[in-house]
Every structure is written in structure tokens, then in C-alpha cells.
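Predict the assembly for these two chains.
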Amino acid sequence: MRAEVPVVLLAGLALLVAGPGARAQESASLPEIDEARFLAEQAALPYLGGSDPFVLRESGWSGRLSPGGEKLIQVQLFRRNEYRFWFALPNRQAVASVNIYNGEGELIETETVWYAGKHVVGTAIRPGATGIHYVRIAITRKSEQPEDWSVIYAYR
Amino acid sequence: MKWLVILGGVAMGSGSVGLAQDDPPAKLDLQSSAHLIVSETVIPIPLEIFRSLDKLGQQDWGRRVEKREIELDTNRSRSALLFGLVVSDGFIAVQAKDGEAVKRIGREVMRLARVLGVAGTVEGHANAIIMQAEKGEWNEVRLELDRTRQTVLDSMLSMRDDDLASLVSLGGWLGGTRALAAVLDENYSPEGSDLLNQPDLVRQLREEFTTLPEDLKEGAVFARVGQTLDDLESLMKSGNTGAISESNVREIASATDELVVAIYNES
């Protein structure tokens, strides 16, 4: 099976390899990069290839979040599928937290993976039932001002 | 240098694993206004749902690919609904690996994009859909369809056409649900029927639809959209097992099919 790595993601990867200086130089001719979304996609990248890849949705969520604050994202999940979510903050000093709740608001125990510090975090779930679930995101510490954030997800 | 460190750590998937986080509450009080719920709704694409159904056994998706003549008019709201429907037809054609249907749908996507004023942003995707369908690169076609859908939504939001974007999403959901319900109706199983357990999602769609300006809901078909969403919300409520009854699946299949036909035929 052909690996499914979005071209846009690979282009962004090349930009990062070139370093921040190159980003600034190229900014006049390239579209502005959503850094939070980009970091989330970087974390997702290893899961999008191989023999049983996850499929990354183009849609996602983003916004600004105050330190100590939390938000809930409603998302319809389907039993028998497996989902991965990634939550990213550009501030490398921040600590990102993500949890998943079922439609009744009950916490589902999931494994959490932090990437490159703790400002990018991922989690996975195989829903026990089809229906609305809640993804809770929070900044837990080391942030003094509101942060841009991005959440993306993939399924298989 | 920091960028390279991040790149290495993330790209190699070398995350650290743990269970402890910020001591999240064991139970959310979903009625509490203290919880800030993100307003954006991400609608599941048909393939996300079909993936789950196929795990119960291969389905004959080819029977769900339909060739329809689209007569366009000046009603942009209907065109937005049609755009969503056509993209969902594309996902069904991908599932059925029907190259001719995908190519035809790629051309329809372009035609609708022109009517909606987003042709410039969609053209590359539409061409890629057609090219990849010729090569039988189904994963690429699927990705391009999702990108097309998202590009149109982003373009509409940037043009402050949020309301039309809602109708594109609604059309896409409707098309996928119609196909899903038809498959389940033909080959009912309680286990598969739980995929139609979507009353909360339907409620969100209905609430968005209800708040659209009245001038965007002109035409008989839009009254029908509101009524059908009302009906679907109650039909999609499941019992304790999560399953939807066979009779409800049949009604869902019938209601969504009639609405889709009405949208295609109204001009």
C-alpha cells in the first residue's frame, strides 16, 4: 500500500530542515505557516505511512487558550475505528494536556504521548461505542499568556 | 537549531509515554457553563464511516454510485448543498474504485466550484482527482477529495461565506449518511446499525441550519431539509446497546434518499 504523507506536510518539513532563517526569507513567497498546526502534523507524520496507516483529516480545530484554561471539542467517533488526536502549542515551555471523554462525560483512560518536550501531545482511542465524544485540551503550566493551539486527528 | 531538535524528535516518533497529566476530572458536567466548548463542528467524511462498516465485511459500494444530471440555477445555497453531495458521491465512488465515476465527479466539482466562486482554489484539486483516478491511485483520490472539501470551506470562510460553508458540510454529511443507510437497510445487522447513532451530530447540524439567514433558505427544498433533520434526530437515537432498529434504519434510508433526490431535482 502506498504511504500517505501529505505533500504539504513534506514541503513544510523541508522548510523546517532549512531552519528558521530560511523560513523568514521565504515568507514573502510562501503562505504563512500555522505553527501550532504544523507541530501537530509533525507529530502525526510517523503514523501516516506503513502497511496500516492512519488517514489524517484535513479538518481540525484551532484557537487561543489561556494558561490554566481548558476547552472541550465535540467529535463524532465510530466504533471499530481507531483514532489518534494531536494537540500542539508553539510555546516550547508550555505543557499540553489532552483527554478524551465519552458522550456521558466520563473520562476514557488513554495512553498519552508527548513529543519534543511537552508542548505537543497525542493520544489514541478505540471507541467502545459510536457517538459524540469530547476531547478536553488544557495548558497545565509554564505558560503566562494565552497560547495559539491546534488539534488534528486521524483514523484507521 | 531548536527547529532541528524538534524535527528529529517528532519525525522519528520518539515521544515519551505516560498516563499522568493534569489530573483531569473523572466526569465532566456537560450541563455546566464552566466548560468552554469549541464551536467548530468537524463533520466525519463518508470514508471514515465506511471504514468501520467494512470491518464487518466487504460491502458492495458499486451499487451506491449513481449518475445524476445536475441542473444548476442561481440559488447558491442549493449549489452549496450540491457541492457537499457531489464530494460525498466522490468518496462513494472511491470506495467502489469506480474510475469513470470519480472523473465525472471531478468535473462536476469544478462546475459547482465556478458557480460558488471558488474555482480558482479548487481547480488544482479537481484536476488531481481526475488524474489520480485515471491511474487508479485511490488513496490519493481520497486525500484530494478531503482537501477539496476543506479548501472550499476555507475559501468560503475567508470570504465570510460561513453560512454557505455550513451548507457544504451539511450536503456532505447527508450524502454519506444516505449511502450508509442504504447499505445497512439492504443488509441489516444491529452491529452495523450503530454507525447511524448520530443524534448529537444531527442536532448540531440542525441548530446550525436553523440559525442560517432566511434568505439563504429560499425554496421548498430548504423547508424539507429542516423537517428531515428533525426526523433524523429522533430516528438516530439508539437504545442501550447502541443499535438502531431495522425499521428506523429503513426510515433513515428513505428520508435521506428523498431529500437528496429533492435537492438534485429542484431547479
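The CA atoms of residues 37 and 99 of chain A lie 18 Å apart. Residues 1-8, 10-29 of chain A have pLDDT under 50 and may be disordered.
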